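Summary of Year 1 activities. Much of the first year was spent building the evaluation harness for sequence design. The harness presents a backbone, in tokenized form, and records the residue chosen at every position. We chose the following record to illustrate the format because it has been used consistently in internal testing since the harness was completed.
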């Protein structure tokens, strides 16, 4: 885990209240567990209310499971209000909910799938932030938006995901500057490949996905667990880090993207193996 450009002021989690979206499984659930272990009360928000409530029970006391679709602004406002009614305030918001698209090129993708990914991964993050921003400012708290190392990598075959995570990065950059006016802070959390159900479905269980995954060189192909991802994020909350990234090998790619990416694009344009994968992907999409 790498945390950089952090503020000297810390945020002790004991006695605080946090809200986490996409909290019924994967990284979101591990974040909720770790926040709770460090003393916070946690509102676990998920589109599946039964799973959100079951996840809350599994985390322990001082929790609340709430059903809300992050694409629904009114539902997100209601989720925040339920948390405020239960715990009296809000100190941390983690906008984590995200999905992956069906593998496809821009030429062959389903328009509805593009809208779904952008709606959850980008607009959903905005909706979460908007719902929680006033309580966060009132308590001089901390907002985390979950981007990805995908924000600075080529997106062939999965462009809606990269587009959404790039947008989240820019939202986070705006937030951390704007919230400083009010004594609150914001963090952009970046992850490489995390071993979750979404990774299994998009990279492991699909032949073309395995082909794309094989194109990632070391150390970018190194996978981390959801627990490791959560630890990176929550450590960043406590130090009020502006950004965190895990695994650490992706740090250099982020720093050097302006130099590396144009050359990387040219290399991938000339990569016959990748072009075959994309041709197969387009044939499958017809």
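For this record, the design step produced the sequence shown next.
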């Amino acid at each position: 885990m790498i945390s950089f450009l952090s503020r000297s002021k810390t945020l002790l989690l004991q006695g605080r209240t946090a809200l986490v979206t996409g909290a019924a499984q994967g990284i979101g659930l591990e974040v909720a567990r770790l926040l709770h272990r460090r003393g916070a009360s946690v509102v676990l928000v998920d589109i599946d209310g039964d799973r959100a409530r079951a996840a809350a029970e599994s985390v322990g006391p001082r929790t609340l499971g709430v059903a809300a679709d992050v694409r629904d602004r009114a539902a997100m406002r209601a989720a925040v209000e339920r948390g405020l009614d239960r715990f009296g305030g809000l100190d941390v918001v983690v906008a984590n909910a995200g999905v992956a698209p069906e593998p496809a090129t821009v030429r062959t993708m389903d328009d509805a799938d593009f809208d779904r990914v952008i709606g959850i991964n980008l607009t959903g993050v905005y909706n979460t932030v908007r719902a929680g921003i006033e309580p966060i400012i009132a308590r001089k708290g901390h907002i985390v938006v979950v981007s990805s190392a995908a924000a600075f990598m080529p997106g062939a075959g999965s462009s809606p995901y990269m587009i959404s995570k790039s947008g989240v990065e820019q939202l986070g950059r705006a937030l951390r500057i704007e919230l400083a006016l009010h004594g609150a802070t914001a963090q952009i959390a970046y992850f490489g490949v995390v071993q979750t159900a979404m990774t299994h479905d998009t990279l492991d269980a699909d032949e073309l996905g395995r082909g794309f995954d094989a194109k990632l060189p070391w150390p970018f192909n190194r996978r981390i667990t959801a627990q490791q991802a959560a630890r990176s994020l929550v450590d960043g909350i406590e130090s009020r880090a502006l950004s965190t990234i895990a695994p650490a090998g992706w740090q250099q790619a982020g720093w050097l993207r302006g130099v590396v990416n144009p050359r990387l694009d040219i290399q991938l344009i000339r990569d016959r193996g990748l072009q075959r994968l994309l041709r197969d992907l387009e044939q499958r999409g017809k």
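The first strand starts at residue 2 and ends at 4. Quantitative recovery figures across the full test set are reported in Table 2.
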